Amino acid sequence: MSNHPSATAVIRCPDDRYSPGNLLARGLDKILKNESVQSYYSLTAFGGSLELVLDDNQLTWKWKMAICQRLQIDHLIIIDHMDCGAYYYAYPGMTKEKEKAKHLENLQYSQRILSKYIPQAKIKLYLHNNNKVVFSS
Predict the structure, then answer these.
(1) φ and ψ of 91, to 5 deg
(2) 26, 23, 87: which is closest to 51 by C-alpha?
(3) 39 Cβ partners below 8 Å, 6+ apart?
(4) Distance CA 49, CA 12 (A)
(5) CA–CA separation, 127 vs 124, rounded Å?
(6) Alpha helices (H) in 35-95, listed in sequence order
(7) Measured between alpha carbons, how far is 87 from 12 in angstroms, rounded to an integer?
(8) pTM of the predicted model as reported, rounded to 2 decimal places
C-alpha cells in the first residue's frame, strides 16, 4: 500500500512553454481543472505520446509504469500539445493538419499500450493548442 498523496499521474512534454504564466501552462491548468486534479499529482515530463511511439523497446515507459503501479495510480492523463518541436523534428515537413492527426494517432496508440501495464488506471488523452483543448477522450 502506498502513502503517496495522489492517485493521479500526468504525462506531458517538458517544453518550457509550460512555465507558469505561459499559454501552454494555462492550457494545462484548464485540463487539470477539467479532470478535478489541481493540487496533488505525479508529473512525468518527457516527449508525451511521441516518446512511447519512437522508443522501440519502451524501457523508459515500462519503468515509469512500474512506478505508477507501485504508487497505485488509478488515473493517468496523457497531454500532447500542438506546435511541438519534437514532432517537427521526428516528422520533417509536417503541416499543422498532419501534426494534429499524428498526435491523435500517437495518443491512441499510447493509451492501448499503457492500458496493458496499468490496467487499473483510467487513461485520459488530451491534445491542446496553447490554452484551448482540441481533443480529449
Answers:
(1) -125, 80
(2) 87
(3) none
(4) 8
(5) 10
(6) 48-54, 59-70, 85-90
(7) 14
(8) 0.85
- Residue 78 to residue 92: CA distance in whole angstroms: 23
Using an 8 Å Cβ cutoff, are 68 and 118 in contact?
yes
Q: What are the φ and ψ backbone dihedral angles of 122, each rounded to 5 degrees?
A: -85, 120
**Mean pLDDT in order along the chain per 10 residues (137 residues):** 65 85 86 82 72 70 79 87 89 91 92 86 92 88
Closest by CA position to 9, among listed 46, 43, 50: 43
Residue labelled with grid coordinates 487539470: 32
Measure the CA–CA gap between 70 and 19, rounded to whole angstroms: 29
Nearest to 91 by CA among 103, 104, 79, 78: 103
